[in-house]
Structures are given as C-alpha cells and as structure tokens.
Amino acid sequence: MSREAHGRRAFMRRTGAALALGGIGATGGCLGVITGSEPAEFSANLASVPDSTLESTGFEEYRVEPLEITREFEVAGQTREVVVTNQLAQYDKAAEVFGERLRASLFVALSTPAVEIAGRTFNPVGDLSTRELAQRMLTRYDDVQNLSQEGEDTVPVLGTDTTVGLFTADATVAQNVTTEVTLHVAEAVRSGPDFVVAVGAYPSMLSDQGDDVRTMLRAVDHDGGG
After folding, report:
1. Which of 33, 44, 150, 192 gets the most CB atoms within 10 Å of its CB?
2. What is the pTM of this model?
3. Rounded CA gap, 161 and 200, in Å?
4. pLDDT tens digits for 60-93?
5. Under 8 Å between Cβ of 48 and 175
C-alpha cells in the first residue's frame, strides 16, 4: 500500500466514519413516541462543496456516499429498529509533508437527519459544542491523539454565522508519518430537516491552508436547505 493510500485509510476514511457514527448516537430518546412494527427510517439530504470551490482551493472529491446506521431499542417490552441514513462527502488535497507528497489535508461535510417528531428534535448533534464534536470524532480510533483546543473562529456556513473550533492534534497521515494537524470543527447547522457538520484538517506546518478550509466552509451547500 502506498503512503498516499494509507493516509486516506488512516486519517480521512476513519474521520468521516467517526463523524457519522457520532452524529446520531442517541436516538433511543425518540422511541417513546414512535409506534408500529416496521423500522423507523430517517434519511438526510446531501451536503457537499461545489466544483468551482474545489477548483479554487485545490481540494478534490474523494468520495460521496450514504452511511446507514441501524440501531435496535427495547420499547414497552418490544424491540424496535431505527434506521438512520447520513450523507457523507469527503474531499482531500495533496501537499508535501517531510519531503513526501501526501494527500494529508481533508474536508468532510456530514448531513444527518434531525429526527424530528411531534415538534421535538432527537438527534443530539445539534446540541454538541465543537469540542464535543471533535472528541466524538477523534476518540473512536488511535491514529489521532493529544487533542488541544487553540481557539475559535466564526464562519458563515449555509447562511448562518457558525462557531468553528480550532484544534491541534497529533495524527498519522501516512505510513510511518506522524505530524501535528490543525482541525477546524464547525458546530452543527440546522438546514431544513437535517443537521450539517463540517470539518477541515491539514498539517499545522501548512498554515496557509486555513484560508482554503474557511472557503470550503463558506461554500457548503445542502440539498434540503430552505
């Protein structure tokens, strides 16, 4: 496996999966108002970044795909199944790190259904701080450690001024290549029936890529918004 391929597996793929799993990890609270024997299904609309923004920032599409999560809960002595379909869009960017050409920078946009029933929203992601989002994302695997919050920023995401936490961590970006990375973690933004969470990350030595991440954040589009 090439260093570039390993970097995608170790850092990008698992980052996106961890975001998706962390987004809808507590749907059990909604089951008291769900009745019926069929699975309760909730699906998000895609959040993505336009091609024009990718071209201007140098990011490229890595993968865009649905991520289905199924959970079973016991309600009134009966087992009930809830199926949640998140939408994940991942982008990456090549850079030179320690003399190696790696796809070490990433941007992730995750849309997850709000799970709104009778006027109540049960997806916990809408109430999480940027640090809580970062911790949920990073504590699910061993490739990123030593998370530290360095401050915060405000960036418009989907037309809403959004708090973006700035963090550093030590990450394995390729086989035998570990470096400090900077992460921009945006609070969840409500857009139509979904929440949208966006995260950008890059080696801290490439500090100029922060502007590109902010450009990506401002450009996120959601099919179900408005």
Report:
1. 44
2. 0.82
3. 17
4. 999 999 988 887 766 567 676 778 899 999 999 9
5. no
* Burial class for 127, CB neighbours closer than 10 Å (0-12, 13-18, 19+): exposed
Residue whose pair of structure tokens reads 């309760």 in the numeric block: 40
- What does the chain come to in residues? 226
Distance CA 144, CA 172 (A): 7
Q: Are 183 and 197 in contact (CB under 8 A)?
A: no
Q: Walk me through the domains of the chain, giving residue ranges and CATH numbers.
A: 3-222 (3.40.1000.10)
Question: How far lies 123's CA from each of 58, 130, 140, 191, in Å?
Answer: 33, 16, 19, 13
* Cα separation, 206 vs 215, whole angstroms: 16
Q: Are 103 and 134 in contact (CB under 8 A)?
A: no
